[in-house]
Amino acid sequence: MIDRLLDIVLYRFTNLKNDSNDNIVPQITTGTIVFGALIRFFFLTLLCWGMIQYFYLYDHWFLLFMIIMGLTFYPAYRQWEHFHNRVDEMQDSTLCGSCKHFEPSGQLCRPLDEHVSNSYIPCDGQSWEPKFIEIENLR
After folding, report:
1. What is the per-residue pLDDT across 14-55, written as a single tens digit (0 to 9) for each?
2. Phi, psi dihedrals of residue 112, rounded to the nearest 5°
3. 85-109: per-residue pLDDT in tens?
4. Which residues, 6+ apart, have CB-to-CB distance to 104 below 8 Å?
């Protein structure tokens, strides 16, 4: 449990190449990215607040902002980019990617509430329906 929490906070799945579209249950979802960023934000805020109090850095509060941006939001943004590139790749390479029931933020098949991967299609194509495409956007 603690190892999984540390993997989420430190974004190890991407760094160690353990997260791919072949996993039946994805390691990285929108929720894990947000959860990891919130935990980092909480601990860094406490650490920076303590440092400002201890070293009397009240006039340099902008350092807190820069530290939080650099160590919390930027890694979360990079993780978000990696996640979206991976989901886009999966949408192009699987039948589920072109189905209207596919939920890209969680990589789920909505009616069956199961994760989709390159090697696993939850409904085996039985519930597949094409996505609605607006003709106006194609012009």
Report:
1. 655 666 677 777 778 888 889 989 999 999 889 888 988 898
2. -95, -15
3. 988 998 888 888 889 999 988 888 9
4. 87, 91
Cα–Cα distance between 23 and 79 in angstroms, integer?
Answer: 17
Q: Can you state the angle between helices 2-10 and 30-55, rounded to 10 degrees?
A: 80
Element housing 24 (H / E): none
> Domain locations in the chain?
2-138
Residue burial 45-64, b: 16+ Cβ < 10 Å; e: rest: eeebeeebeeeeeeeeeeeb
Q: How far is CA 55 from the centre of its chain?
A: 36
Query: The whole model's pTM is what?
Result: 0.78
Instruction: List the one residue out of 119, 116, 122, 125 whose CA is nearest residue 29.
Output: 116
Amino acid, single-letter form, for residue 23: N
Residue 66 near residue 88 (C-beta atoms within 8 A) = no
The amino acid occupying position 69 is: M
